[in-house]
Amino acid sequence: MIEFEERSQAFLSWLSTSSVSLNSKISLADLRSQHAGRGVVATSDIIEDEILFTIPREVILIAENSDLSAKLPQVLEELDSWTALILVMMYEHLKGSASPWKPYFDVLPLTFDTLMFWTQEELEELQASAVRNKIGRDSADKTFRETILPIFHSNGAILFLNGNFISDEELLSLAHRMASTIMAYAFDIEKKDGDKEFDEEGYTSDEDDEVLPKGMVPLADMLNADADRNNARLFYQEDALVMKAIKPIAAGEEIFNDYGPLPRSDLLRRYGYVTSNYAKFDVVEVSHEILIDTVAQNGAISREEIDSRLEYLDGEGIIDTGYDICRPVPGEPIQEIFSPELLTVIAALLMPTADFEQMKERGKLPKIGSISSKVASLLSKLVRNRAMQYATTFEDDEVALSSLLASHTQNNLSRHSYRMQMALEVRLGEKSALREAEQILQRLEATAIESEKDHKRNPRFHTDDGSSKKRKVG
């Protein structure tokens, strides 16, 4: 506790000597009891648009601000911004007290609860969540072995400034730690206006807009995030980055940034925590394979015909490795729950052969308007098949989570138990999304069946302008 506080105070002193402007109405708080590390809280009432702190651009930990950019300019130029920042952070960390960012490194975490650091046993608690396929530990390891290690081998005299050489395995461990720090804490750093290239009409190039370097912004990265309680935002100026209040903040309230609409599985993967405030963004990914298996089980179309139609759809850029099912929001249309690509593929695969061939000849795709009973029925089967991929039911997980929380308090949860809790919350969120989607589909299917019956009783044809007219019968 004493060391934690001492490091916090040393960091604040460093900010002061680095020309960082701090509002006297905020303070750095110890939030470890909430599994949140450090956070920033208001000590007095803050009004909207009030500046909380200002960080000069030269204080940002970014490749161009490190003296390594002068020592190994060509090496850094050949790396992407992500890998370049990893290398710079490893270099500055190994410099120890010689690094101008030493007090900053001292308050950054040494351990993480991001999925990169979970054991295989812990990862299995996520069951069938697609996030398990997005961790990328092996690919990161390969990149570090093929890129970072050779740079250290070739430039040891520069990178090991104090002659404190460490083994390749220690370097790999440090590279993973710095990469996880960047994933959890780094910002996209917008260029100074003077560094941007403008065309004759005053617009920046696509490259300027899309390729933004990553940078570590001291203090700004210590704001925790909350989708509902977001009350601050980082603004980019020519010579500094400015954090402002975007609404009034009362004394005693924590100051929150926001990560945007991230599902809790991605919160866990990137930042190492979950919160119920992001439950509304939960998403379930359905693999292309289970979609095709479900269509084949339906029996309305042969495997050969499925493959033939998929070839056409792939040429039209519709086929993907996976499709999203979003957590339903009351009142929103079905098209907002299921990805448009998924709806398009299903509609195409369920079309009568003659209709599909005619559409194919015209080089078109199905228009997704109202959902037919056949499409709703198939989607229901797909949702059920996806739910069956999880080893436990929604009810099982509710009991397990209640039992875990009843046997521990948040303050005495072990790291393993804390990870088990987060895994349960992620898979409960995904199963809940599937349950709610299926309930909506069942109602939609029933409504569509009645509508189709009514259509048969009162035949209509559609004109080119979209209006409907009664068809003469008999």
What secondary-structure arrangement, pairings included, does this model have?
Blueprint: H1 2-17, E1 21-22, E2 26-30, E3 38-42, E4 51-56, H2 68-71, H3 73-78, H4 81-95, H5 102-105, H6 120-123, H7 137-154, H8 156-159, H9 168-185, E5 187-188, H10 206-210, E6 214-215, E7 224-225, E8 232-236, E9 240-245, E10 256-257, H11 264-271, E11 283-287, H12 288-298, H13 303-315, E12 322-326, H14 340-350, H15 353-361, H16 373-387, H17 394-407, H18 415-457, E13 460-462, E14 468-470
Parallel strand pairs: 7-10
Antiparallel strand pairs: 1-4, 2-3, 4-9, 5-6, 8-9, 11-12, 13-14
Helix pairs in contact: 4-9, 7-9, 12-16, 14-16, 16-18, 17-18
Give your account of this protein's structure.
The protein is of the alpha+beta class. The chain folds into three domains: 2-60 and 217-280, set domain protein methyltransferase, domain 1, CATH 3.90.1410.10; 63-215, no CATH class; 283-456, Alpha-Beta Complex (set domain protein methyltransferase, domain 2). The chain has 18 helices and 14 strands. It has helices at residues 2-17, 68-71, 73-78, 81-95, 102-105, 120-123, 137-154, 156-159, 168-185, 206-210, 264-271, 288-298, 303-315, 340-350, 353-361, 373-387, 394-407, 415-457; strands spanning 21-22, 26-30, 38-42, 51-56, 187-188, 214-215, 224-225, 232-236, 240-245, 256-257, 283-287, 322-326, 460-462, 468-470. A four-stranded antiparallel beta sheet has the order 1-4-9-8, with no helix packed on it. Strands 2-3 form a two-stranded antiparallel sheet. A hairpin with a 5-residue loop joins strand 13 and strand 14 (468-470). Helix 7 (137-154) packs across helix 9, helix 16 runs antiparallel to helix 18 (415-457) and helix 17 packs antiparallel against helix 18. The N and C termini lie far apart (88 Å).
